[in-house]
Amino acid sequence: GQNIDQPTEMTATEGAIVQINCTYQTSGFNGLFWYQQHAGEAPTFLSYNVLDGLEEKGRFSSFLSRSKGYSYLLLKELQMKDSASYLCAVMDSNYQLIWGAGTKLIIKP
Amino acid sequence: DVKVTQSSRYLVKRTGEKVFLECVQDMDHENMFWYRQDPGLGLRLIYFSYDVKMKEKGDIPEGYSVSREKKERFSLILESASTNQTSMYLCASSFKQDYNEQFFGPGTRLTVL
Q1: pLDDT above 70 for A25
Q2: Which of A53, A85, A109, B25 is most buried, taking the most CB atoms under 10 A from its CB?
Q3: Selected residue of A97, A98, A103, A104 to mutate for chain B interface (largest B Cβ count, 10 A)
Q4: How far is CA A6 from the centre of its chain?
């Protein structure tokens, strides 16, 4: 079957760095997405990786290793507004998105 | 500014009622999707559509149907609502291309009593 695993909850301190991991087993691979979802709001797109390596976008970076079925989202200089759930999703061989359950990130002052 | 709107943010219905959830996008996207989101589970795809009058079943279509009469509008129908359909329903849309970032609406929190 298809499976996306990510930690349920993480806590970090304002100003620090946090890494949210995602491992996947899917039938085929056509890219991995990270979305941010604040409580009660719609998910919003953060990043897309289809090749191995690191993609940097401001304070956020996303890494992919296809051979290991692994990705992480790195958030630097954490701000209180980064408190949200972070969703990992893999596009399978049918170009359908398979979603993880999300990681709730709590930022403490 | 791109926009996906959903007809209601909150909805309370009774068991057995027919429920209509509407989604409209203004980005001229070909693809539209309906998901449900439940605590501890990832988003689960109910139905999707790649074109007007076209629909495909997702992972959990049972108890649901959809309608896409116009490109910008995608409706989700619960033929006879049941308590296990209490959930957050999210609509999304995207362009028809391999790399298809999806844009989401704000969601409808449906409670079936």
Answers
A1: yes
A2: B25
A3: A97
A4: 8
Q: How confident is the model at residue B1 (pLDDT cuts 50, 70, 90)?
A: low
Which residue from B5, B69, B59, B4 is spatially nearest to B35, judged by alpha carbons? B59
* Interatomic CA distance for residues A48 and A67, integer angstroms: 17
Q: How confident is the model at residue A96 (pLDDT cuts 50, 70, 90)?
A: confident
B35: closest CA among B83, B80, B96, B93? B93
Half-sphere exposure of A104 (CA within 13 A, CB side): 8
Per DSSP, A81 falls in state G
**Residue B40 binned pLDDT confidence (cut-offs 50, 70, 90):** confident
Query: What token pair was written down for B31?
Result: 């693809």
Q: Give the pLDDT of residue B96.
A: 82
Those residues with Cβ within 8 angstroms of residue B78's Cβ, 6 or more apart along the chain or in another chain: B13, B17, B18, B19, B21, B63, B64, B85, B110
